[in-house]
Amino acid sequence: MKLLKGVLSILAMGLFLISADTLAGVRVVNCDKGGSLQKAIESGAGSASPVEIQLLGTCYETFMFTRDRVTINGDGNTTIVGHIRIFSSDQVYLGDLNITGPGPGVTVFNGRTRFVRVNLSGNEDSGVYARQGASVNFVDSRINDNHGEFGVLLEEAYLVLNNTEVIGNWGHGIMASKNSSVSLGNNSTVHANQGDGIQARTSSTVEAINSHIWGNRDVGISMRSGSAGEIHDSAINANGQRGLEVAGNSTLDVFGGMVGWNGEHGVWLTEHSLLKLIDAQVSYNLGHGLVIARDGGAVLEGNSRIDDNTDANFQVVCHGMEASIEIVPPALTGPMDCPDADF
């Protein structure tokens, strides 16, 4: 009996210690009652334990943190009016928050950060800056109406969007530069931005799966200066200029989906760049469906087609003898103006 009591006592003490350790990382901060998120984060300094913060109210605060394993949960109405700065932190989670304010919304340097049901809206600078190896993941979120040059700017960083909208930002929707990567999936939307929807440059990559890039003022997706991309079953529609632009030794493969109703040609391909269309449609664009210039090359495979674009004479135009197109049946185009069409 004494032995049993001793074992039960040890088990009880163990459960107490586990509970105490778990609860040690849980804090409630109500900004409407004078709470400070910065102080709550700093209170966990020097500890490797996870920190979980339940954040309530409207917080007029700019804050930063450098520690790992931080969870900040709002209640859907929780609003941060200020700038969030995250430096080299892994396993950072922010959920059910609104972020706005006089500067940028979020800056992430290195580390991994996940946003779920977060609205980054109305910031007077860009919504997101991600740099120096940062990995940023948005799920069921919105980045909209930010007043800077970009909704999202990536430099040597990685962005994943799932069921997320990048809408109505005052500059480009997403800018990926300096070996950055963008991945859109699960019905993500890039719409009505006052520049390009997505621009990739300086050896960056773009992947879009089951997504919609439409109604942006300039180009839907622009690939420049050695960048590469794949688009799967997505719509690149109704952008003010071209749907797709591939330039400066870049490559783009389009699998399925539609490039249509864009304001100035469907696709512009130039400067030693390569485009592949596989079971994709380029139709109903103002002007030509595809323009190839300066040693650009295009390949059409599967059931791809370029037709029903509004130019009365040609669906595909090649500028110069070095521009070329290869059409692998059953792929087809309407009339072409390509002096030396084949590679």
Descriptive report:
With 343 residues, the chain is mainly beta. It has one domain: Single-stranded right-handed beta-helix, Pectin lyase-like (Pectate Lyase C-like, 3 Solenoid), CATH 2.160.20. Helices cover 8% and strands 46% of the residues. The chain contains two helices and 38 strands. The protein has helices at 2-24, 37-42, and strands at 26-30, 51-56, 58-60, 63-65, 70-73, 79-81, 84-87, 92-100, 106-109, 112-121, 128-131, 135-139, 142-144, 150-155, 158-162, 165-167, 172-177, 181-185, 189-191, 198-200, 205-209, 212-214, 221-223, 228-232, 235-237, 244-246, 251-255, 258-260, 267-269, 274-278, 281-283, 290-293, 297-301, 305-307, 316-319, 324-327, 332-333, 336-337. The strands form two sheets. It has a 25-stranded parallel β-sheet that branches. A 13-stranded parallel β-sheet has the order 4-7-9-11-14-17-20-23-26-29-32-35-38. β1, α2 (37-42) and β2 (51-56) form a beta-alpha-beta unit. It is elongated. The termini are far apart. Residues 1-23 have low confidence and may be disordered.
Q: What is shown here, in short?
A:
With 343 residues, this protein is mainly β.
What labels would you give this structure?
343 residues; mainly beta; Pectate Lyase C-like; 25-stranded parallel sheet; elongated; disordered N terminus
List the helices and strands and how they pair.
Elements (H helix, E strand, L loop, with lengths): L1 H23 L1 E5 L6 H6 L8 E6 L1 E3 L2 E3 L4 E4 L5 E3 L2 E4 L4 E9 L5 E4 L2 E10 L6 E4 L3 E5 L2 E3 L5 E6 L2 E5 L2 E3 L4 E6 L3 E5 L3 E3 L6 E3 L4 E5 L2 E3 L6 E3 L4 E5 L2 E3 L6 E3 L4 E5 L2 E3 L6 E3 L4 E5 L2 E3 L6 E4 L3 E5 L3 E3 L8 E4 L4 E4 L4 E2 L2 E2 L6
Parallel strand pairs: 1-2, 2-5, 3-6, 4-7, 5-8, 6-8, 7-9, 8-10, 9-11, 10-12, 10-13, 11-14, 12-15, 13-16, 14-17, 15-18, 16-19, 17-20, 18-21, 19-22, 20-23, 21-24, 22-25, 23-26, 24-27, 25-28, 26-29, 27-30, 28-31, 29-32, 30-33, 31-34, 32-35, 33-36, 34-37, 35-38
